[in-house]
From TrEMBL:
Family: Belongs to the synaptophysin/synaptobrevin family.
UniProt xrefs under Pfam families: MARVEL
InterPro entries noted in UniProt: Marvel, Synaptophysin/porin
Entry keyword annotation includes Transmembrane helix: yes
Location of the protein in the cell: Membrane
Protein name: SYPL2 protein
Domain of life (superkingdom): Eukaryota
Residues covered by the MARVEL domain: 1-134
Annotated TM spans: 33-55, 67-87
Gene Ontology CC: one annotated term: synaptic vesicle membrane
Organism field: Ceuthmochares aereus
Gene: Sypl2
Keywords in alphabetical order: Glycoprotein, Membrane, Transmembrane, Transmembrane helix
Membrane topology: Multi-pass membrane protein
Length: 134
């Protein structure tokens, strides 16, 4: 929800009060899907671990239980791939929306001929990139 993040820019038209702008974009849906699926996968893994360890005889005797376990695992695997792809696209959109050159281009004060605007630092996205790889 980048649209909720304000940032200030100076106003060079004689007023001393800075102008408040907001970032553009809402990329929360892919991130929420990714995290929700991760939580469900964790809960299913804990339930399966209890089933394997505590009720091993039930798992061995019932022929449908291993097939059902396999089908649920395949579904979770497919959805994990979809969630990782969605989060990867969402992350690339976040990077594009927060790129310093994009922010400078949106500032009216930087469009003047005598004004030179430079970005302070580039956002660190290393941990976000690792979250997609996992």
């Amino acid at each position: 929800r980048l649209y909720q993040i304000p940032f200030e820019m100076p106003d060079c038209e004689g007023t001393s009060e800075p102008q408040t702008l907001h970032l553009v974009g809402d990329f929360s849906a892919p991130a929420e899907f990714f995290v929700t699926l991760g939580v469900f996968c964790f809960l299913y893994a804990m339930a399966a671990l209890v089933l394997y360890l505590r009720f091993h005889s039930l798992y061995g005797e019932n022929k449908r239980l291993p097939i059902a376990d396999f089908c649920v695992t395949v579904c979770f695997t497919f959805f994990w791939l979809v969630a990782a792809a969605a989060w990867g696209k969402g992350l690339s959109d976040v990077k594009a929306a927060t790129r310093p050159s994009s922010l400078i281009a949106a500032m009216a004060v930087c469009q003047g001929g005598e004004v030179v605007c430079t970005a302070g630092t580039t956002p660190a996205m290393g941990l976000a990139n690792i979250s997609v790889v996992r």
